[in-house]
Amino acid sequence: MKYSGFALERRASAFRALATTLLFFALAAGLGMLSACQLSSPESLTVWTYDSFVSEWGPGASLAAGFEEKTGIKVEFVSKGDGGALLGELLSAGKSARADAVVGLDDRLMKQALAGNTFMKLSLSNLDVIPQSLRVDPGNRLVPFDFGNFAFIWDSESGIVPPGSLEDLTRPEYEKKIIIMDPRTSTPGLGFLAWTQSVYGVEWKEYWKRLAPSILAMTPGWDTGYGLFTKGEAPLVLSYSTSPAYHMAYEETERYRTLVFAQGHPAQIELAGVVAFSRKKKDAEKFIDYLLSAEAQSVIPETQWMYPANPDAALPASFSIVPRDIVTLASTMLNPAEDPETAAEILAQASR
């Protein structure tokens, strides 16, 4: 049977409509599959850390890029202030913490950090090369990624004679010439408190009272305090023995010097771990393993300005300025729950 022209046009229109409908459903199905793929693809890891780690000169960006290149997994670093503030927010958030991993707690905060079963035990291929002396958590929930000694840094162009001991810091000529960090919020501040307790024992409070006139500022974190120092606000700052390496590398100057005290200097071991409540624990564990690799550890010296935990990572030439005769002083907190608040109150009362 032959169709008239009108009938043929109607049949053609019907076919076109059917084809359009089929194409629509095909596209919809394709978009649905694409959407499903996007939803199932791994999201970026969220890593909580401290200010200087994510600063423009810190290691965060380089480590994130290196890890993504190796694994395809993106890393988003979120700063929580300094190390003490980082721990405070982690403990406050508990199971609702939106973090997959944490980088930047230290050996003095470790006991508090592990008390709430916040971190999972790690199985890392690169952990075997890390010296046992740095592996302070036998359960491998928090693992070391760098270390260094606390020290005071002196501006050699300031015109003041450098102090030679903790007691020297209390002398009248250093009035309002020292910047330290708050032991309640900062790991260097907490390390300094432990330092004074190791040297003065139960008489540490009297020492802090003698020291109070010398303190220009007690900043919430290291980043702020060291920034004030480099701006010339004070000639002495609490930092790390390795800090002058930064100025050697980027400013080609030996103006800033590490002061070596005969009493010794406490060490800090910085730690990283995977949050037990994370939904991306396997990927987070891969990131911590990468952090301990020689490749990632080679980034640490000239970004963190600390010693890498992995001995296979070579030190740059800038570290030649760091004193080699520093004696590590064993130091522990007498009362970690109360002493930081007491120390801060002593300085607050002195400034009233």
| Arithmetic mean pLDDT | 89
Question: What is the number of beta strands?
Answer: 10
* Strand/helix succession: HEHEHEHEEHHEHEHEEHHHEH
Helical percentage:
25-40%
* Relevant CATH superfamily of the largest domain: Periplasmic binding protein-like II
Strand content: 15-25%
> Stretches where pLDDT falls below 50 for ≥5 residues?
1-41
If helices are DSSP runs of H or I spanning 4 or more residues, what is the number of helices? Answer: 12
**Sheet with the most strands, sense and barrel status:** 10 strands, mixed
CATH architecture of the largest domain: 3-Layer(aba) Sandwich
Structurally, how many domains make up the residues?
2
Overall shape: it is globular
Describe the structure.
With 352 residues, this protein is of the alpha/beta class. The chain folds into two domains: 45-147 and 268-316, Periplasmic binding protein-like II (D-Maltodextrin-Binding Protein, domain 2, 3-Layer(aba) Sandwich), CATH 3.40.190.10; 148-267 and 323-350, Periplasmic binding protein-like II (D-Maltodextrin-Binding Protein, domain 2). The protein has twelve helices and ten strands. Strands 1, 2, 3, 4, 5, 6, 7, 8, 9 and 10 form a ten-stranded mixed sheet that branches. The N and C termini lie far apart (108 Å).
SSE blueprint:
Blueprint: H1 5-40, E1 45-49, H2 60-71, E2 75-79, H3 83-93, E3 101-106, H4 110-115, E4 143-155, E5 178-181, H5 187-200, H6 204-211, E6 215-219, H7 222-230, E7 236-240, H8 244-251, E8 256-259, E9 267-274, H9 281-291, H10 294-297, H11 301-304, E10 307-308, H12 339-350
Parallel strand pairs: 1-2, 1-3, 5-6, 5-7
Antiparallel strand pairs: 3-9, 4-7, 4-8, 4-9, 4-10
